[in-house]
């Protein structure tokens, strides 16, 4: 199957780029041929978005809403096709693929509702004066999406930016471009005006950097690694350009002594192994209070061994393939380093092809690479804490601050501790892996800048303008 670029409302072949083989990570076979953009296509896409944005910004909210609802209907009607793309292109297991496809439907519908809720403010500042603060779209927004949730995390940017009145140029991850094609198909079928959304797969150098550095692009929304995000921030800052960055995480789960052990095992297992651990908010550090430590290690290891590794299309598969084999070598080196410094490998640590076995280490300490570094695989570390305060200290001993979990039956203590935990999201008695279309999703520290979801996305994708109206003669000092 061959997939084209989508620019200015039309499907087209690349002229200055190349046609690239999109590989299935399960077996390395060629899944699709995809047209990658070059400099000419980047220019064409940005020009189309720049030309269309004023008209789109002035489009009535009801019309924007109707288009997004129609796009959501298309996604629902084609949910099997979309889930199939996610399984074959990104290695998503059956359950994850259908979850993501269903979430995409919800995002279209949630964003449709925000079209009528781009709220401003009126203040009474002085006699005879109306003081208004309005929210206005930036214009052209560029989105750079990751491979792990290629549909959901791209769409979170696209739909809310459009709802706020912006136009959009999307660069999907190079490893998962066809997921971006699904977004273009949905919006095209819904009758979105030409130029409002443009899809240009390509490399970071050929496409991503050009989008960030183009002065017509007024905002960049990115999800990906912290290293790449910092580079985007540096480039965007030269132009004083707005950016939103959702980056890495080394997410902790704190288990206190009063919580049910079996429930803790299930929560930790889902958080650690969902989508092979290839999620920025996966649970990669299990910080367990000392009285439960040994028993938790035993039960969690047994639970990890039950995870089925295999064909993403099988309904009972939990662990599918990693997106690329190079990640296996990175994980191997982290495990070797940890074991050489005293960690104990309880299970896993092996792989066949891109399939990495669910892996559990215990007695992990801060002098080991795996304590701080992202693994982006089905690997988690169990860390002993003396008490609740020590657990919070270990939680915060990291450059990242995306998601976190706190498991305890003492909700009063939980609320107090949640304020001490350095993370953008704290989930009490649930997994670090949690999302919703309308919440304020995002991190602190090296995990990012900005928030995504519902009205919080509308805030991100708009800028404020102060307007005053003097309806009686102004009283001036001279």
Structure description:
With 478 residues, this protein is of the alpha/beta class. The protein folds into 2 domains: 270 residues, Aldehyde Dehydrogenase, Chain A, domain 1 (3-Layer(aba) Sandwich), CATH 3.40.605.10; 178 residues, Aldehyde Dehydrogenase, Chain A, domain 2 (3-Layer(aba) Sandwich), CATH 3.40.309. The chain is 40% helix and 24% strand. The chain is built from 15 helices and 25 strands. A hairpin with a 2-residue loop joins strand 16 and strand 17. Helix 3 packs across helix 4 and helix 9 packs across helix 10.
Count of the domains = 2
> How does the overall form come out from the CA principal axes?
globular
- Classify the beta-strand content into a percent band: 15-25%
CATH second-level architecture of the largest domain:
3-Layer(aba) Sandwich
CATH superfamily label of the largest domain: Aldehyde Dehydrogenase, Chain A, domain 1
CATH class of the largest domain: Alpha Beta
Radius of gyration over all CA atoms, rounded: 24 Å
Number of strands: 25
The major β-sheet equals: 7 strands, mixed
Map the helices and strands.
Elements: E1 2-3, E2 5-7, E3 10-12, E4 18-23, E5 30-36, H1 39-57, H2 61-77, H3 79-90, H4 94-114, E6 121-123, E7 129-137, E8 140-144, H5 152-163, E9 167-171, H6 177-189, E10 197-199, H7 204-213, E11 217-223, H8 226-238, E12 242-246, E13 251-255, H9 261-273, E14 283-289, H10 290-304, H11 326-340, E15 344-347, E16 351-352, E17 355-356, E18 359-362, H12 369-372, E19 379-385, H13 388-396, E20 400-401, E21 403-407, H14 411-420, E22 425-428, E23 444-445, E24 448-449, H15 454-460, E25 462-470
Parallel strand pairs: 1-5, 8-9, 8-11, 9-10, 11-12, 13-14, 13-21, 14-19, 18-19, 21-22
Antiparallel strand pairs: 2-3, 4-5, 6-7, 7-25, 12-24, 15-18, 16-17, 20-23
Helix pairs in contact: 2-4, 2-6, 3-4, 3-6, 4-5, 9-10
GO molecular function: salicylaldehyde dehydrogenase (NAD+) activity
InterPro entries: Ald_DH/histidinol_DH (IPR016161), Ald_DH_C (IPR016163), Ald_DH_CS_CYS (IPR016160), Ald_DH_CS_GLU (IPR029510), Ald_DH_N (IPR016162), Aldehyde_DH_dom (IPR015590)
Domain Aldehyde dehydrogenase: 11-467
């Amino acid at each position: 199957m061959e997939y084209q670029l989508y620019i200015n409302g039309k499907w087209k072949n690349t002229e200055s780029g190349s046609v690239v083989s999109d590989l299935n990570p399960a077996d390395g076979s060629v899944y699709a041929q995809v047209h990658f953009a070059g400099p000419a296509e980047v220019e064409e896409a940005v020009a189309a978005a720049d030309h269309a944005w004023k008209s789109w910004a002035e489009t009535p909210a009801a019309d924007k809403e109707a288009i997004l609802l129609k796009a959501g209907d298309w996604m629902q009607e084609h949910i099997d096709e979309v889930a199939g793309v996610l399984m074959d292109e990104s290695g998503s297991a059956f359950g994850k693929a259908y979850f993501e496809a269903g979430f995409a439907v919800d995002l279209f519908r949630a964003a449709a509702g925000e079209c009528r809720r781009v709220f401003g403010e009126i203040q009474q500042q002085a006699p005879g004066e109306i003081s208004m603060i309005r929210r206005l779209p930036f214009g052209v927004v560029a989105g750079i999406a990751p491979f792990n949730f290629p549909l959901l995390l791209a769409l979170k940017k696209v739909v809310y930016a459009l709802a706020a009145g912006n136009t959009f140029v999307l660069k999907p991850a190079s490893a998962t471009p066809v997921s971006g094609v699904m977004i273009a198909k949905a919006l095209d079928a819904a009758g979105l005006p030409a130029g409002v959304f443009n899809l240009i797969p390509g490399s970071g150098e050929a496409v991503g950097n050009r989008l960030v550095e183009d002065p017509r692009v007024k905002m960049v929304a990115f999800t990906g690694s912290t290293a790449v995000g910092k580079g985007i921030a540096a480039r965007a800052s030269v132009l004083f350009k707005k950016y939103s960055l959702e980056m890495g995480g080394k997410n902790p789960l704190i288990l206190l002594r009063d919580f049910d052990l079996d429930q803790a095992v299930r929560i930790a297992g889902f958080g650690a192994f969902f989508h092979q651990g290839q999620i920025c908010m996966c649970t990669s550090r299990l910080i367990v209070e000392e009285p439960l430590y040994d028993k938790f290690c035993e039960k969690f290891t047994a639970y990890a061994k039950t995870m089925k590794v295999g064909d993403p299309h099988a309904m009972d598969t939990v662990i599918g393939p990693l997106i690329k084999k190079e990640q296996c070598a990175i994980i191997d080196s982290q495990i070797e380093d940890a074991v050489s410094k005293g960690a104990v490998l309880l299970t896993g640590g092996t792989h066949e092809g891109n399939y990495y076995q669910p892996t559990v280490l215990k007695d992990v300490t801060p002098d080991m690479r795996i304590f701080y570094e992202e693994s982006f695989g089905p690997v988690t570390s169990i860390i002993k804490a003396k008490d609740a305060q020590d657990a919070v200290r270990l939680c915060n001993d990291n450059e990242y601050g995306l998601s976190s979990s706190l498991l305890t039956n003492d909700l009063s203590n939980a609320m107090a501790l949640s304020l001490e935990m350095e993370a953008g999201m704290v989930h009490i008695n649930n997994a670090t892996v949690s999302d919703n279309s309308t919440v304020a999703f995002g991190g602190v520290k090296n995990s990012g800048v900005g928030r995504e979801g519902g009205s919080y996305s509308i805030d991100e994708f708009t800028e404020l303008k102060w307007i005053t109206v003097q309806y009686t003669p102004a009283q001036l000092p001279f």
